[in-house]
User: Fold this.
Amino acid sequence: MMQDKSQKPAQKNNTVLIEELMNLAENLFDREEYKQCITHYTKVIHYNPGLPNLTYALYMRGCAYEEMGEIESACDDWQKAKSLGFEHPMGVDIIDMSLEKYRS
Assistant:
């Protein structure tokens, strides 16, 4: 990710922090440490990281909830991510695919 040089120092620090938190959360997810993963994605969401990262953090936190069997929380996060209106550049709607598994 390229950083905008016009950003203020606090924004740059937040950008770096968000990237670090997201990388850590991804690693935790890969290691199946879902509770810690959720904690880190929640921190990312708290920093309001911009539409693509916010959408992704909500989606991935939902996936971690799903892995823990917390389907209602997973669907809540996926619905929040969907409501943001961000469209994947490749046209893939992984959020809808995830929600579709649990629609009655």
Observations:
- Residues 10-100 form a domain with the Serine Threonine Protein Phosphatase 5, Tetratricopeptide repeat fold (CATH 1.25.40.10).
- The two ends are 39 Å apart (CA to CA).
- The chain has a mean pLDDT of 88.
